[in-house]
């Protein structure tokens, strides 16, 4: 195919795309106008039905709980696949590698930042169904707290703070916990992931029924999953270092 | 549309373009973090704080770390292979 015919073909495709886009945009609601009924309905009925102040969390962990369960299992499978692949081919022992942060300033700031980030993460998870936040956001933030242990301290400290076996168990436990919530509601006589627990008072940590349980399960799973990703990727670098010696 | 929304959209467009135009992969990883931050601003401006928090942790923590550590491993291996 010559360059000219390729450009011509691309131009035809782009023109078609532009026409479709223009047609689609012309049919949109005016800017800022929300036409769908579900958001409005949920905003109106959720406080009475679920008592969770953050309607988004109620949608994620309850009304659309099965979707979230699927997403959580996707993350679980992806991280498991990554761990299998990398562990299979790794030969070096990285226990001898230290890789200490050399800058005193980085160490000082990092040591202060670790507890702050971890507390912020726990706060994001704990209040996820009352204010913006939740298990996923808080979980990734918690994994960042552990990553800071490496950035401000050294590789050995991070390995000790997040032992692989414990992280594996935490990841599996978090993923399984959500499934257990679903089956528990089945056994109790409801539908899968139906909210059968007492709903509590609106705006309190005890509100939402099964939402806090699912939220903490996801928080545990996501934080462990991302810690596992960081540990495995860093382990690769450390294995290279061990080999270079 | 109000001014803040236009400014947030323009920021996202500018940094999105920058991410595409920069060639060096380590710089792309760092720039992507900043681009993610502009997306966070956009999502806050459009009143989606839950999504903003997700975007914040993914683009500022997870993505850059994965890219930078993968690049570091690859470069070390390439250096040894030479």
How would you portray this structure in words?
- The complex is a heterodimer of chains A (245) and B (82).
- By secondary structure, chain A is an all-alpha fold.
- Chain A has one domain (53-244).
- In chain A, 72% of the residues lie in helices and 0% in strands.
- The relative contact order of chain A is 0.15.
- Chain B has 82 residues and is mostly helical.
- Chain B has one domain.
- Chain B has three helices and no strands.
- In chain B, helix 2 packs antiparallel against helix 3.
- The longest helix of chain B is centred in the C-terminal third of the chain and has 33 residues, at 49-81.
- The mean pLDDT of chain B is 92.
- The A-B interface holds A 31-32, 54, 56-57, 124, 132-134, 136-137, 140-141, 143-144, 147, 226, 229-230, 233-234, 236-237, 240-241, 243-244 and B 1, 49-50, 52-54, 56-58, 61-62, 65-66, 69-70, 72-73, 76-77, 80.
Low-confidence stretches of chain B: none
Helix residue percentage of chain B:
over 70%
Q: Name the shape of chain A in a single word.
A: globular
Q: How many E strands of chain A?
A: 0
What is the overall shape of chain B? elongated
Residue-averaged pLDDT of chain A: 91
The rounded distance between the terminal residues' Cα atoms of chain A is: 51 Å
Tally of DSSP helical segments of chain B: 3
Rg of chain B, nearest Å: 16 Å
Structural category of chain B: mainly alpha
Number of helices of chain A: 9
**Oligomerization state:** heterodimer
**Which chain pair shows the most residues in contact?**
A-B, 27 and 20 residues
Number of domains of chain A: 1
